């Protein structure tokens, strides 16, 4: 499969994995492996980032995976910036998945605070991957300040509803100068395939895998779906039509 | 109660008016009681056919009705799914640290009641830190500071100093203390205290008066306004609850008391969620426990079945709220509740100041039931395929301390 390039770094996998909600760190590690993922995001609130022996962190092999800290739980730009700096100081990782989600119920991202934080973090040399609502103008504004990707949500996080924001994500993809990673709400491999077929560069999945009866199998399902969706996108799928179009046309015999 | 009122949307701007308009404060309670008794099986089935996880008063009413008692298994399955999707296979663990049992209040059910004669204990900052050390060694990162109404000693300055010293060891610090002003809460928040739990105890004014005859806490309306102050102080977590088992003096034999409490509690939560939309509202389910010098015959203790119905009904209405259960409850019940919507539990708790480090052989607020160690609780969770979560916050969110 073709490579995904983010901030000059190359990846073969287009499936990012979130690490919350697993029944154990071991199951999480097995699911990440089965997903063939290369980018794994961890909530700074959940781990003791400075501690090598942290249960969750020690289950993620840093030589195999890019550990992407996220600022989940931050209500303001200030908090997200502070947390990112702390994580970088403790680990040397300068990548951050920027999440500013002041509403604790739907966990929807705050566009104003996210843009503010992104601007500061980019200036400080961070590679910023912002989690946003599917807003094409916000996507452009974030790219203008120098974010490495945009990560629009498919539907509210953890909701498994699939691509409810499809129309807006189509515009974001069409207008993007950076990779578009569809994040949040993908509940089934078919949802992930749909996003990839549309031309998303990657997807991020957590709840659908972590809360499946067999997370490892589900991770495999998502891996295959993401690959299938990408291949379909690259193949130049033929256009959809309301009318039937026979594969052996009735007028095929006419020579001229 | 106005029958034509829109029960889906609050139009009033304060909880007192909302509860009055809904008929949950005062004379409307008899109408609700009658309605509860009349609910039919078909109505419960309708309620269960709706998409779970969203609050509507009318639907909650059906789910907490006597008729719904025959549907507990179905409710449990739905509650499990809803909780799993939102919280995953995880349960947060926390420990309470009792700071003082000096009290100016006269709560009839409480071991710390001011009229009770026993040697009282207050922990100095150093003693509290020694207690916290024991708790931290057990693995806890989530600490709840608890105190009786001891305004002279457990001051805002005491709490802010203690919190600033605890920040190194604990990623999350919350309090369950006497009611303060918004300005005082804002100072606690600035010092790194991010959540407050305060129970209304009961949403029935008459019952409240019966059990809180004297002391600052006797003012029902002031108490009701407390969670607003938490929200105004920008607290991240607002914990609410009713003390289950208080009996209504006007209807002492009424079996409906806990059902009405659930309705009022839900209205309160919904109001807070909409008004303080950046704070997370969580529910606790404290059942009355035996305590020193407290006569249990004056209460209407809640059965396990009732408690489970209350938890399930609320979970089917509030998918995203944290649900807490303490060591008041017996081990066998707690082991089952973690798959029915509970998302946070205490472990290895001592409810007497000085209890962890063994320096105070003092009186407990109430007797705990689940005496297992934190390690045993963690093992129990793992055996059920659940991850014990010790840390779910980080002091990195907070501004650096001055100086």
Structural overview:
The complex is a heterodimer of chains A (256) and B (403). Chain A has one domain: Alpha-Beta Barrel (TIM Barrel), CATH 3.20.20.70. Chain A contains nine helices and ten strands. Chain A has helices at 25-35, 55-58, 77-91, 111-123, 136-145, 166-175, 189-198, 207-210, 215-234, and strands at 4-6, 9-11, 15-18, 39-43, 66-70, 95-98, 127-132, 151-152, 181-183, 202-205. In chain A, strands 5-4-3-10-9 form a five-stranded parallel beta sheet. In chain A, strand 4, helix 2 and strand 5 (66-70) form a beta-alpha-beta unit. In chain A, helix 4 packs parallel to helix 5. The mean pLDDT of chain A is 90. Chain B has 15 helices and nine strands. Chain B has helices spanning 15-21, 28-38, 41-49, 57-63, 72-87, 125-137, 156-166, 182-190, 205-211, 220-224, 226-232, 257-275, 304-315, 331-337, 374-383; strands at residues 90-100, 142-147, 172-176, 193-197, 237-241, 280-284, 322-325, 344-346, 387-389. In chain B, strands 1-2-3-4-5-6-7-8 form an eight-stranded parallel barrel, surrounded by six helices. Chain B is 37% helix and 12% strand. Chain B has one domain (15-395): Alpha-Beta Barrel (TIM Barrel). Chain B has 403 residues and is an alpha/beta fold. The mean pLDDT of chain B is 89. Chain A binds chain B through residues 20-25, 44-49, 73-75, 78-79, 82-83, 86-87, 102-106, 158-160, 207, 210-211, and chain B through 84-90, 171, 236, 273, 277-280, 320, 382, 385-387, 389, 391-394, 396-399.
Secondary structure layout:
The complex is a heterodimer of chains A (256) and B (403).
Chain A: E1 4-6, E2 9-11, E3 15-18, H1 25-35, E4 39-43, H2 55-58, E5 66-70, H3 77-91, E6 95-98, H4 111-123, E7 127-132, H5 136-145, E8 151-152, H6 166-175, E9 181-183, H7 189-198, E10 202-205, H8 207-210, H9 215-234
Parallel strand pairs in A: 3-4, 3-10, 4-5, 6-7, 7-8, 9-10
Antiparallel strand pairs in A: 1-2
Helix pairs in contact in A: 1-9, 3-4, 4-5, 5-6, 7-9
Chain B: H1 15-21, H2 28-38, H3 41-49, H4 57-63, H5 72-87, E1 90-100, H6 125-137, E2 142-147, H7 156-166, E3 172-176, H8 182-190, E4 193-197, H9 205-211, H10 220-224, H11 226-232, E5 237-241, H12 257-275, E6 280-284, H13 304-315, E7 322-325, H14 331-337, E8 344-346, H15 374-383, E9 387-389
Parallel strand pairs in B: 1-2, 1-8, 1-9, 2-3, 3-4, 4-5, 5-6, 6-7, 7-8
Helix pairs in contact in B: 3-4, 5-13, 6-7, 7-8, 8-11
